[in-house]
Every structure is written in structure tokens, then in C-alpha cells.
């Protein structure tokens, strides 16, 4: 399925080359993007990363809008330089003028959030509970200490977890 996405990247570049009457170096394309972002353009590395899960779930719009959105970032950077805003007038010009698409900053794809484990810490304050991330919990295991902002006592792991 990524073959169509790569073809769409090429089509977007060909459109930009006709519009600006110049050649653009093709980017490295990666599908190692997860989470809420549909795509990311790395300007200085000339690299595009796409979220395959969101691509599979929103195939048609992703090809039309998201791919053009990310290519437009690289093209804008190569045409106008470093001093432009990510979704500024130069990027918008490319979205409207080259791709004839609305310059939408964000997608509205449904994103399935994965379950996250929180580690519950307590202090002597009544009704106190602090939910730590796995990373912060690991730091406690390495000797880092956290204090309650109200009573200034050490937060202690309760032995309980919560899945959110």
C-alpha cells in the first residue's frame, strides 16, 4: 500500500517543478511515524515521515491532502529558505497555487489512543494521589525523589497502577 503514497509524493514534486520551473531533490520517505501526527517534514534532512496506520484508515484523504501538506513544507523551505513560518503564507501559496488544496494545518482523522499505565504515588496529605508515567516511575527506581508541593513530603509509590 505505501507504493501509492510514494507515487503521490512524486506527483506532488512534479506539480511543484512545473509551477516553479525548477527541479527539486526528492526526499527520503519513511513510514516510521506513530501517534497522532499523520506526517512530518524534516526540512534540513529533506525527509518525510508518514503514519502508516492513519494512512490505512484514511487512505483517500491522506493521499490527497496529507501527502501534499508535507511535500509543501519541503518545497516551501527549498524555495523560500529558513526564515518562513511552518504554515505561513509561503506554505499556503504552495497548497493553494500548486496543489489547489485548502491550506489546512491539521488533520481531523480519528486517532486511537493506546492504553497507558500510570504509577500511583502518595504523600501524607489527605486525598493525595499522583499519577506518574512509566518514565518518571523508572527515574524513581534510579534514585530520583519527588516532593509534594503542598506538604513538601516525599512522594512514595503506593504499589498500585491505573490504566488510562
UniProtKB/TrEMBL annotation:
InterPro entries linked to this entry: SprT-like_domain
Recorded superkingdom: Bacteria
Transmembrane segments: none
SprT-like domain segment(s): 7-158
Pfam families: SprT-like
Record's protein name: SprT family protein
Source taxonomy: Bacteria, Pseudomonadati, Pseudomonadota, Gammaproteobacteria, Pseudomonadales
